[in-house]
Write a structure and sequence with these properties.
It is built from nine helices and six strands. It starts with a strand and ends in an 8-residue tail after the last helix. The chain has a single domain, classed as 3-Layer(aba) Sandwich (Rossmann fold). It is an alpha/beta fold and 231 residues long.
Length: 231
């Protein structure tokens, strides 16, 4: 049975992908990973980075003897998957991303970083703060947000993946985005898709940025290759 690895987004956890994992379990040997510092896993000594998370995924593939699995990455998880496809060719057989933000500069990073302001979350969305606290216990969710914000600042100063990288990616890649995603622009998604030698594109109707807004049946079908994107 083909293996698939599901990667969560920033300040998320593997538990958020469990519904998708369950839906895929009849077709694939499904693996989920908590990035270090997420989902209660120990905080790393150094800062968060795409390179750190990609290294963790590669270690997982080696430890579990996964030969060229499919990788599905939601949001930040898609960026990590693309980094692996670019810098470690052959490690994954197919990449599928959803709601991944590709374009980063200082202004974008500063705008995004406000979404990770713990004090603002406590004031505006205490229920979400409680969700983060529970999801990442025993870690301090505020530290998680702080480290994530610092990572975004670093991305804004120097984007880990540039437009020159994508033409070097030979891994078949399906790039998906919701038509109502306000965090990721259609322009940046199209630019990455067009630069990929083996890229496909799918715009999901009536879909916002959160993973939960995507139709589960469509996701399973697209991941399984039952319905292709536009080449």
């Amino acid at each position: 049975m083909q293996s698939i690895v599901l990667l969560h987004g920033a300040i998320g956890a593997a538990s958020q992908l469990q519904t998708l994992a369950n839906a895929l379990s009849g077709r694939y040997a499904v693996h989920t990973i908590n990035f270090t510092g997420h989902g209660g896993t120990p905080m790393p000594e150094g800062p968060f980075s795409m390179e750190l998370f990609a290294g963790q995924v590669l270690d997982y593939l080696e430890q579990h003897q996964l030969q060229s699995p499919i990788v599905f990455g939601y949001s930040m998880g898609g960026y990590v998957g693309m980094y692996i496809a670019r810098h470690h060719p052959g490690k994954i057989s197919r990449l599928i991303t959803l709601a991944t933000k590709w374009q980063w500069d200082e202004a974008i990073a500063a705008k995004q970083q406000r979404l990770f302001d713990a004090a603002l979350i406590l004031e505006k969305s205490p229920a979400f703060a409680q969700q983060l606290e529970k999801m990442h216990a025993p870690n301090d969710w505020k530290e998680l947000l702080s480290r994530t914000g610092a990572m975004l600042t670093a991305l804004g100063a120097s984007n880990t993946l540039s437009m020159e990288d994508y033409p070097q990616v030979q891994t078949p890649s399906l790039i998906m985005q919701g038509d109502k995603d306000r965090m990721v622009s259609l322009e940046e998604t199209l630019a990455v898709y067009r630069a990929l030698p083996a890229g496909s594109l799918c715009i999901l109707p009536d879909t916002n940025h959160p993973l939960e807004s995507a139709d589960l049946r469509w996701l399973v079908s697209l991941i399984s290759g039952d319905r292709g994107g536009n080449n």
